[in-house]
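REVIEWER CHECKLIST
Item 1: Sequence provided? yes
Item 2: Single chain? yes
Item 3: Sequence as submitted:
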Amino acid sequence: MAKIIKKKKKGLKSLRSSGGSSVETSPLRPQLIEKTPPCINRCPNHNLIRDWLTTISQAEGKGKTHEQALEEAFYIALETTPFPAVCGRVCPHPCEDDCNRKDKDGSVNINKVERYIGDYGLQHGLPAKKVAEETRTEKVAVVGSGPAGLSCAYHLARRGYPVTVFEAFPKAGGMLRYGIPDYRLPADVLDGEIDRILDMGVELKLDTKIGKDISMDDLRKEYRATFVGIGAHQGLKLRLDGEDAENVWAGTDFLHKINGGEMIDVGDKVVVVGGGDTAIDAARVARRLGADVTILYRRTRTEMPAIDEEVEGAEEEGVTIELLAAPLSLHCDNGKATGMTCQRMELGEPDDSGRRRPVPIEGDTFDVELTTLIAAISQAPDFDGFENLREGKDWIKIDESGHTQEHDIFSGGDDTNLGLVVDAIAHGRLAAFAVHEMMTGEKLPDKPMLAVVTSDKMKLSHYDEAQRNQPEEIPVDLRLREMNAEIVKTMSDEQMLAEAARCMSCGMCFDCGSCWSYCQDNAVVKPLTKYGTYKFKLEFCNGCKKCAENCPCGYIEMH
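Item 4: Structure as written out by the authors:
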């Protein structure tokens, strides 16, 4: 039998056999520590992205059918958002910007998998599930049926609260309905996800404006709590002489009319001012109405706040983007704008937004002809009836739970700050939790945000190369010929499955077996069933760290 000599050295043990070989060991021992993947961390609503991706990709190993996995993934998505099919179409997916897979072969196409899951739920008529069967007596009012208000109503209805949503417009949806064209978000998709919320018992009162049809004071007398999600539907003006001409539109008003079913004669030369999503949407709609369209934006393409894919789509459709240009004056004739003088700009020092401030180049101007001008530079809420909530230029101020300065009023979405649809959904969810806490004293536990695992803490070489899957798009000529034709198609089954399989399960075991394979001391116990829990026999472990060093997803740490 080989003789073993134990020797201490700076916290390490050296095991030397009579054969002359030695193995240095450590007092550290492996621990399984789940971490937050960066996609979930970056998502403003902290949607459980890894959970629904791995539910799909691990279905076969867990003995589940494709349909069972998709239904399970759908209900995981509905834990945080009632709008997976909507967000799968209109969200600019900041989650993908932080996906660790980008450092290997491209981010997982999270957005389009979310759309597939949302569409699956709609196609199969899957209802929302409540987390409490009791019906509570405390009534809650929600003002505004945009993504913030409906998210709040959804999460309250899940917990048994009687909720009434008051909407000033003829249809529900807010800016989802009146600000996003059908070619990006078909009405039947939006209707389907709204109906699922209403089917939970949420009451909807349309054509009801608070401050006109019902006062805020009367509302507060009847309802224990109120969530205000009125959005920001008023387009800001350019502050140019002549912009009250009949063929000058605010971007929000233009899209509202079009999405409401009205036709507008824009003529053959449309100029759109602005670089955000409203400007891009207005420009693409004008192209579908048959006009040549030019967008004026005072900064460079890098600073454009619009979604990159939408800007690229506009260019594909023939929209001209004139960068570093701003309107200077309007030319009008017989009550109509006929042209505009524009100012060439250059970028100076950064402003409060962090973007470089556009500065006029003296004497450098040019003229454009136009038959319609659309100003889409920004937008603001209509505070009529809500004056007591407005706090100057800050609009409605809220704390991290959505509470306003009034004890029984909560708010969220664009009336607090212009943001993404997913920001508004997050505001509504957190406000619903805060309303529940106010009613019951019970603080609803949100899933804790654990330490975020980044790609440098993973072993990317373990994963096979797999290129990102992109869904099919309809050709440009069909887009321009059919006003409401949806441009991007839902992924095929094969694409969706392949894309879900690209998820690296960052920060959570996916049963790759690397720790078991690399351990020479039988200290790792492999589960009897696929995707079961690995365990350690620490009495066999010598602290060699191989399990942690070779764990591809960063799940194992040495402590």
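Item 5: Key structural point noted by reviewer: The chain has a mean pLDDT of 93.
Item 6: Recommendation: ____
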